[in-house]
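can u do me a favor
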């Protein structure tokens, strides 16, 4: 059938175009890694700027204590930062735990805001706006409730933003704290290193663009004030605020030496819910910023808009189309003369995926092992295929919520 050949050809071209873009980002990211390894963190001179660290938390009793303790142990002058925990409409023992930590560290700038179902419980963006209203810092840092940043993390972020007036925000790297629990957490660890931080490094190296990841980042207070705070309709508030920072003329830099460790989902059910929320939130950001493609003043951010648009729409559609056509060709329902070529390109794509992903792992101590090659290969035929379902589900949920005008609420990631 001619139509099946055309569909397969279009799908293959789209998939390979995006694959080559990913290879380009890996190469650029690796170059950036080699460069930053040799560079020193710029020194902080004079009085350190006052920083407000905000931690939005909803039913985080299992992890919030360790997070606050690690923030209190940062090597930043204790009188030059405050910690604001927004315990947002929690029904667990978070309030009691946080009260105990306040008593233990009396005299430290630890503020706990307890909201109820009237003032809170409306999502992370709303919680951040509540915390920001009580903050005093000229710089605002955000950490998720499951994070344990390394002692130097905040100082490195502050040093970068203070020494470059063109930066509106600086993001750090996050690592998987529970990577050795099971195969899923090992997959997530690989994904975090290759498709999140290496892609960030590549985009910064090539386009001076980065997307705020939601945790372990710092931004200027006046930016938050200028844009009116966080968009309460956005469940991917990190990506959403990134585009508004871009449009103010600022850049967002990636500093991989500022590291935090976070807990990742340990069950497929929790992972699927979390990633669906991410996909749904990013679709909202794509739709909201789509008009910027035709805005002359948005030239610098067009790559990011097209990048997200390609991943969540073009790539998902192309992968599903090619997979369906290959299955239908195998069982004889359709006939495509490109089936053998498509199979060859698919095998070549796997090879590129494995090699490219493994190269990114060589940048981390303890990750360069032969067993990780097997993990990457298995990841391609399982984890990556599940991602297509996540993206499709995120699209479905976005448009369903748009039609029924559902209110944004906390999408709680279960902790372990």
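np, heres the sequence
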């Amino acid at each position: 059938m001619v139509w099946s050949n055309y569909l397969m050809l279009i799908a293959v071209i789209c998939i390979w175009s995006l694959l080559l873009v990913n290879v380009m980002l890996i190469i650029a990211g690796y170059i950036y890694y080699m460069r930053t390894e040799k560079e020193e963190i710029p020194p902080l001179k004079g009085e350190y700027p006052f920083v407000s660290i905000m931690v939005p938390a909803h039913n985080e009793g299992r992890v919030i204590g360790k997070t606050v303790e690690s923030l209190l142990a940062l090597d930043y002058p204790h009188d030059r930062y405050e910690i604001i925990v927004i315990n947002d409409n929690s029904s667990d023992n978070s309030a009691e735990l946080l009260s105990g930590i306040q008593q233990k560290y009396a005299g430290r700038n630890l503020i706990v805001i307890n909201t109820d179902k009237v003032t809170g419980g409306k999502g992370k963006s709303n919680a951040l706006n509540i915390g920001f209203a009580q903050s005093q810092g000229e710089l605002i840092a955000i950490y998720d409730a499951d994070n344990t940043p390394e002692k130097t993390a905040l100082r490195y972020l502050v040093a970068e933003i203070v020494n470059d007036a063109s930066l509106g925000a600086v993001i750090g790297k996050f690592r998987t704290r529970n990577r050795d629990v099971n195969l899923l957490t090992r997959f997530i660890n690989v994904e975090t290193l290759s498709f999140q931080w290496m892609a960030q490094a590549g985009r910064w190296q090539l386009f001076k663009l980065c997307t705020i990841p939601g945790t372990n980042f710092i931004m200027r207070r006046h930016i938050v004030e200028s844009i009116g705070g966080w968009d309460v309709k956005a469940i991917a508030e990190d990506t959403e605020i990134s585009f508004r920072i871009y449009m103010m003329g600022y850049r967002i830099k990636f500093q991989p030496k500022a590291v935090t460790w976070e807990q990742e989902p340990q069950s497929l059910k929790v992972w699927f819910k979390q990633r669906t929320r991410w996909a749904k939130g990013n679709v909202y950001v794509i739709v909201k910023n789509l008009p910027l493609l035709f805005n002359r003043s948005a030239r610098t951010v067009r790559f990011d808009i097209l990048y997200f648009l390609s991943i969540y729409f073009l790539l998902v559609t192309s992968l599903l189309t090619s997979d369906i056509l290959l299955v239908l060709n195998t069982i004889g329902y359709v006939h495509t003369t490109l089936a053998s070529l498509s199979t060859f390109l698919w095998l070549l794509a796997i090879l590129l995926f494995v090699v490219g992903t493994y190269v990114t792992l060589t940048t981390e101590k303890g990750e360069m092992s032969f067993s990780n090659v097997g993990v990457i290969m298995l990841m391609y035929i399982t984890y990556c295929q599940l991602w297509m379902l996540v993206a499709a589900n995120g699209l479905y949920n976005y448009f369903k919520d748009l039609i029924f005008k559902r209110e944004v609420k906390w999408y709680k990631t279960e902790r372990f």
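Strands lie at 51-57, 81-88, 110-115, 139-142, 147-149, 167-176, 217-220, 251-262. hope that helps!!
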